[in-house]
Amino acid sequence: MRMKTLMILKAGLVTLLVILLAGCAAKTPAPEKQVSLATQSIAYAESSGAVEFAPVELEMAREKLNMAKRAMDRRENLKAKQLADEAMVDANLAEAKARSAKAQKIVEELKDSIRVLREEMNR
Q1: Tens digit of pLDDT for each residue in 18-64?
Q2: Cα(62)–Cα(104) distance, rounded to whole angstroms?
Q3: E strands, the chain, where?
Q4: What is the pTM of this model?
Q5: Domain tally for the chain?
Q6: DSSP letters spanning 1-21
Q7: 95 lies in a domain?
Q8: Residue 97: which residues within 8 A CB-CB, separation 6 or more?
Q9: What SS3 state is found at 76?
Q10: Tell me, what CATH number does 79's domain have?
């Protein structure tokens, strides 16, 4: 009887150890690369004029990056990765909107210059 109890106890411990090891192996690693890329994307967006031309999207990117960093601190790595990825997408959108707005502004200035030249030619 005692031998049987000991074998059941050993089997239970082995099963518990396997479950614990599997749980540790399944953990998502800290998304340091994604956070770094999101930080760079925000910097690019800022330098391309997003502060002026896409402030809402830029602010969303910053907020999501901060949330990702806080999630990493809490070791919620999957959530942190998702938030960092979203921050990068928002920053890329802000950069694209800023570049588009700048290009549109240049087009309008060129149109005004052409209009002035035409007026001068017609005098």
Answers
A1: 565 555 545 789 999 999 999 999 999 999 999 999 999 999 999 99
A2: 25
A3: none
A4: 0.72
A5: 1
A6: -HHHHHHHHHHHHHHHHHHHH
A7: yes
A8: 50, 53, 54, 57
A9: coil
A10: 1.20.1270.390
